[in-house]
Amino acid sequence: MVQITLDDLCGLVQYGVKGNASSVALLSRRLASKLKKTDEAAAAKIASLLTSQSMTRDASVSPAPVDLDSRRALLRESSNVILDVEPEWPEHISRVLSQVVRERSAASRLLEAGLEPVRALLFKGPPGVGKTLAACWLARELHLPLLTLDLATVMSSLLGKTGSNIKAVVDYAKSFPCILLLDEFDAVAKKRDDDRDVGELKRLVTVLLQAIDEWPSTSLLVAATNHPDMLDPAVWRRFDSSIDFDVPPASVIAKMLTKEGVSSNLAVEISNMFVGQSFASVQRHLAVAKKASVLDDKHLDQAIVEIALDTAPGDDRVAPTLRNLRIIQLSLRGLSQRKIAEELDITHPTVGRVIKEFKAGA
After folding, report:
1. Residue 228's pLDDT is what?
2. Which of 55, 60, 107, 205 is the most exposed place for a label (fewest CB within 10 A)?
3. Which helix (H) or strand (E) holds 20?
4. What is the DSSP letter of 249?
5. Do the beta carbons of residue 200 and residue 160 sit within 8 Å?
6. DSSP H helical ranges for 36-150
7. Hey, is 88 helix, strand or coil?
């Protein structure tokens, strides 16, 4: 039979007296795991105290941190996150994000077994591909406030202040369950062998590493970077998982368009025109098309076709799609199949086939 030893209890008290929350949490998880074999109720109680997902801020939580010189806020805080658009992820991203939600939703069960849910994630990829949106989605799904580091304010020009600002942000975020988003992470976690940077930035990396090591299981830390090659090597192993974000493939773009009201077959055609563009760029095209459909009293299909044609890349890869979109565009304007065939100098059966396929997916 597994029993709680005196060393277990002494270790817990010792780290508690020192104020080492990370070690207290680690020892508590081990105790919960041992107790589960003899006292499931006690193990569940400890796990519940460790996760405290329902915990809210009380008077003991300090005010949000500010830069001591400028008095500007170091964080942007959003409670009850609402998304303007419902994200459509590639399969590999969807799988990892869903697993994060699953682990954190069942945090008590993991803690009872001496395990931890995901605590720290690294998102990497070019701008506009959904890294920030993914952090917002996690905040909504986990019902946690989202704290976003304001890098411009944190990066104080005064020597020594940047590290203090980062520490203040992390200490505040650790004081209650939340998601902390460190955007543009490469700016504050650069390789320490970069001779162009002053010693302050190198010390800052050490501050960040310690912060990640001590991050509590009650919250989730998300770091996002456009330049993963610039990160200090020691940073990588601190994260439980990293996710590669990239421009969406045609299949994902088609789902995005269909979800917003574009006819399914047309969405497939247009997705080929938008391949290579970021999520943000595709969303901008959709927003412009929606406004045009309202202001010009036209169907969304017609508006998005016109935008796709205006922004079409000039290469042979999309030539068949361009032809099909021009046929659909003229059809939506009310031209007959015969007129379309004459104007585009293509056969009447080709025009008929494209229009038939488009109407089938409308």
Report:
1. 84
2. 60
3. none
4. P
5. yes
6. 40-51, 91-105, 107-112, 131-142
7. coil
**Residues in Cβ contact with 15 at an 8 Å cutoff, skipping those fewer than 6 apart:** 23, 24, 27
Q: What is the pTM of this model?
A: 0.73
pLDDT tens for 245-260 read: 999 999 999 999 999 9
Q: Measuring CA to CA, how many Å separate 106 from each of 48, 74, 110, 150, 243? A: 11, 31, 7, 31, 21
Residue 164 and residue 160: Cα distance in Å, rounded? 7
Backbone angles phi, psi at 224, to 5 degrees: -125, 135
CB 243 within 8 A of CB 98: no
Non-local (6+) Cβ contacts of 139 within 8 A are: 78, 81, 145, 146, 179
User: Which residues face 338 on adjacent strands?
Assistant: none
Q: What is the mean pLDDT of residues 206-220?
A: 85
Which residues fall within 8 angstroms of residue 50, CB to CB, at 6 or more apart? Answer: 25, 28, 29, 32, 107, 108, 111, 217, 218
Which among 106, 142, 130, 122 has a CA at the least distance from the CA of 215? 122
Q: Could you give the domains of the chain?
A: 6-51 (no CATH), 75-244 (3.40.50.300), 250-361 (no CATH)
User: What's at 352, amino acid-wise?
Assistant: G
